[in-house]
Amino acid sequence: MPKKVDRLERRTRIADALMRVAAEQGLEAVSLRHVAAEAGVSAGMVQHYFRTKDEMMTFAMEVVRERNQVRVTEAVAALGDTPAPRELLRTIITTLLPLDDESRADGRVALAFLAYTAVRPTASAVLREETAQMAGFIGSLLPVRHEEIAARGLLAQMEGLGVYLLGGQYTPDEARAALDAQLDLIFGG
After folding, report:
1. Rounded (5°) CA angle 78-82-88
2. pTM recorded for the entire structure
3. What does the DSSP assignment read for 12-80?
């Protein structure tokens, strides 16, 4: 009887290896050969599951997205049934910021993917749609006029704080303080 292969498990194993390579060595080190070595599989197996580097990168970003969704869902659930909009936003944003080892590793992959999509417009289509959805959701929580513009600014701050955290320019406490100051400006604090 042939061995049954869990395709999703193998793809996830390869994507995890890609994320470790990207997080430790940078996006430029990501290649089929490097990812195969990190995953402990052959380059042929990597090519069997991912025909191109684009496919590998897209799948890795989906894994990061799913991990972030789980973290956000758990953090929001801990707030109870009807959290105040400011508290809800702060929780979502701080959960997405690279403030611990796991979220830093995912943040490095997300940053690498963002840079990767800067020169590949087709790969960035998903990011554009997700960003628009996130801005719409955030805007719906803001008590200001021109909520869409304010939401975009808050998203840009989140991304900027993430970059500064990953680069070591800000500590987690400094990032939280900057976020709180912005939320105070928006919500009055």
Report:
1. 65
2. 0.84
3. HHHHHHHHHHHHHH-GGG--HHHHHHHHTS-HHHHHHH-SSHHHHHHHHHHHHHHHHHHHHHHHHHTT-
Number of Cβ atoms within 10 Å of the Cβ of 80: 8
Q: Is 11 helix (H, G, I), strand (E, B) or coil?
A: helix
Distance (Å, rounded) from C-alpha 135 to C-alpha 155? Answer: 7
Which two tokens mark 110?
Answer: 């997300």
Tell me the per-residue pLDDT of 3-24, one tens digit each, with 9 for 90 and over: 666 788 888 888 888 878 877 7
The four Cα atoms 63, 64, 68, 74 give a dihedral, to 10 degrees, of: 40
Question: Which residues fall within 8 angstroms of residue 153, CB to CB, at 6 or more apart?
Answer: none
In this structure, the number of other CB atoms found within 10 A of the CB of residue 117 comes to 20
Q: Which residues contact 135 (CB under 8 A, 6 or more apart)?
A: 148, 151, 152, 155
In one-letter notation, the amino acid at residue 63 is: V
Q: Per-10-residue mean pLDDT for the chain, 189 residues long?
A: 72 83 75 88 88 80 87 96 96 96 85 81 80 94 91 95 96 97 91
Query: Alpha-carbon distance 43 to 110, whole Å?
Result: 24
Q: How far apart are CA 158 and CA 152, in angstroms?
A: 10
State the chain's mean pLDDT as an integer. 88
